């Protein structure tokens, strides 16, 4: 049986995290190439830095990203926006 966890703080941890995230994101390249590329370009270590042209676009990206990362065992859990309306929608969804 192989390793299933990597200790946080090891020098290889950021590389392994990034490779794992890319692996799961690339699974959607054929189904939704625009989403996959946007998510890949938005990765910075364990953060995703992106936005949308309006609240609806940003919310749709949040829903897709959260659900698709969850399929890979990643719990995306902290979200910040400068839009109060969007933050309210995100908080409502997180409560569910």
Secondary-structure element order, N to C: HHEEHH
Structural class: mainly alpha
Point out poorly predicted stretches. Answer: none
Cα Rg: 14 Å
Distance from N terminus to C terminus (CA atoms, Å) equals 36 Å
Biggest β-sheet description: 2 strands, antiparallel
Could you estimate the helical fraction of the residues in percent? 55-70%
Q: Please report the total strand number as a whole number.
A: 2
Calculate the mean pLDDT score and round it: 88
Number of helices: 4
Provide the spatial order of strands within the biggest beta sheet.
1-2
Domains counted in the coordinates: how many? 1
| Structural shape | globular
Please indicate the percent range of residues in DSSP E strands (runs of 2 or more).
Answer: under 5%
What does this structure look like?
By secondary structure, the protein is mainly alpha-helical. It has one domain. Helix 3 runs parallel beside helix 4. The mean pLDDT is 88.
Short description:
The protein has 96 residues and is mainly alpha-helical. Helices cover 55% and strands 4% of the residues.
Name its key features:
globular; mainly alpha; two-stranded antiparallel ribbon; 4% strand; 2 strands; 96 residues; single chain
Compile the SSE list and pairings:
Layout: H1 13-26, H2 33-42, E1 43-44, E2 47-48, H3 55-71, H4 84-95
Antiparallel strand pairs: 1-2
Helix pairs in contact: 3-4
